[in-house]
């Protein structure tokens, strides 16, 4: 039986994602290992403008899904 997860890796990034937390290095490592087309990023929380620009660039970043910060009441509604 074939599963999507047999061919993709999901990397979760949680919390406040800032450029100074070495996001460019993470993306460069993913590309250097030839994993850009095999990885999907799940980002939850806030991102600064520099990270948004990097994550939104299809040349630099793998596919991604961003969920904004939600407080406890909002999170319960999503789940």
Fraction of residues in helix: 25-40%
Count of strand segments: 3
The strand order across the widest sheet is 1-2-3
- The structure class reads alpha/beta
In the predicted model, the low-confidence regions spanning at least 5 consecutive residues are none
Topology:
Layout lengths: L8 E6 L8 H10 L6 E6 L4 H7 L7 E5 L4 H7 L1
Structure overview:
The protein has 79 residues and is an alpha/beta fold. The chain has one domain (4-78). Helices cover 30% and strands 22% of the residues. The chain is built from three helices and three strands, in the order βαβαβα. It has helices spanning 23-32, 49-55, 72-78, and strands at 9-14, 39-44, 63-67. It has a three-stranded parallel beta sheet, with no helix packed on it. α2 links the parallel β2 (39-44) and β3. It is globular, with a radius of gyration of 14 Å. The model has no long low-confidence stretch (mean pLDDT 85).
Key phrases:
about 30% helix, single chain, about 20% strand, alpha/beta
How would you briefly describe this protein structure?
The protein is 30% helix and 22% strand.
């Amino acid at each position: 039986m074939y599963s999507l997860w047999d061919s993709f890796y999901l990397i979760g990034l949680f919390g406040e994602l800032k450029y100074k937390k070495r996001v460019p290095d993470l993306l460069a490592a993913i590309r250097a290992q030839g994993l850009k087309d095999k990885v999907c990023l799940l980002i939850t929380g806030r991102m600064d403008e520099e990270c948004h620009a990097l994550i939104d660039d299809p040349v630099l970043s793998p596919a991604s899904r961003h969920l904004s910060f939600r407080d406890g009441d909002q999170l319960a509604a999503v789940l």
